[in-house]
Amino acid sequence: xxxxxxxxLAAFCxxxxxxxxxxxxxxxxxxxxxxxxxxLPHMLGIAIGFGLMAALVGIGLMGIFEAVPVLHDVLTxxxxxxxxxxxxxxxxxxxxxxxxxxxxxxxxxxxxxxFQWVNPKAWTMAxxxxxxxxxxxxxxxxxxxxxxxxxxCLPCVSVWTVLGQQLRRLLTNPARLRLxxxxxxxxxxxxxxxxxxx
Length: 198
Known about the structure:
Blueprint: H1 3-18, H2 22-34, H3 36-67, H4 70-91, H5 98-103, H6 109-115, H7 120-133, H8 139-167, H9 174-190, H10 193-197
């Protein structure tokens, strides 16, 4: 991979990872509800899980989707259903009831890694990156794409987590926190709109 192509890949990874989407909205809500430290496993799960997903897409899953297009439709339906469930969980993440708030937990590393497989934006990013930057699907090119995503993902999702954590100061009132969580849930649902136009 040439230096120019590598820089273009880095730019693509940063922009696509930093722009709003399900992962960023969820870590922002988690940062507001649980703080940066407790959200760290979630962020690492996104970075490593998405990198692994991109590698597997490049190595062979992309070919399966090309051979059996209906699988893409099935994945879309499952993704939408799961994201709606997560939106409901975010909306109810930290209710004013102290006991319920104590039992509330951020997403784990494994949950975040597995979430990438039903995240429509993640699929779009992976398929686009492999098509454009690893079109020959050679192992080296695919691993470069996956590695670049892993490299830039943690700093990008950290920005959203810190933003959520900073908002936490404004959300000490249970009513404001509930309103924020419902707003984040609404934005997560709104992030599904492009799926229906695709």
